[in-house]
């Protein structure tokens, strides 16, 4: 019975000791890929209500009447 517990403990320690360095390398890559995707969508997104159409004539109401 002690051999089974030792084997389970060895597998758990080996998994954690391999998973932590792999996660430390994969997580920044996932974050960078996510930021690239978000920024590329932000540049191509024309559905914002705040964005103005560049082809539309500008209503310049800041000038004083002459």
Note the topology.
Blueprint: H1 2-44
C-alpha-based Rg, rounded:
28 Å
Distance between the termini: 98 Å
What portion of residues is helical? 55-70%
Strand content: under 5%
- Spans of 5+ residues with little confidence (pLDDT < 50)? none
Order of helices and strands: H
Shape: rod-shaped
Number of DSSP strands?
0
Oligomeric state, counting identical vs distinct chains: single chain
What composes the largest sheet? none
Average of per-residue pLDDT values: 80
Tally of individual helices = 1
Structural class: mainly alpha
Describe the structure.
This protein has 66 residues and is mostly helical. It has a domain at 1-43. It has one helix and no strands. The longest helix is centred in the middle third of the chain and has 43 residues, at 2-44. The chain is rod-shaped, with a radius of gyration of 28 Å. The N and C termini lie far apart (98 Å).
Question: Which keywords apply here?
Answer:
66 residues, mainly alpha, 1 helix, 0% strand
In short:
The chain has 1 helix and no strands.
């Amino acid at each position: 019975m002690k051999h089974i517990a030792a084997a389970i403990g060895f597998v758990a320690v080996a998994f954690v000791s391999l998973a932590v360095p792999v996660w430390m390398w994969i997580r920044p890559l996932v974050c960078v890929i996510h930021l690239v995707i978000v920024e590329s969508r932000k540049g191509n997104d024309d559905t914002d209500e705040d964005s103005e159409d560049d082809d539309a004539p500008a209503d310049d109401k800041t000038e004083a009447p002459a």
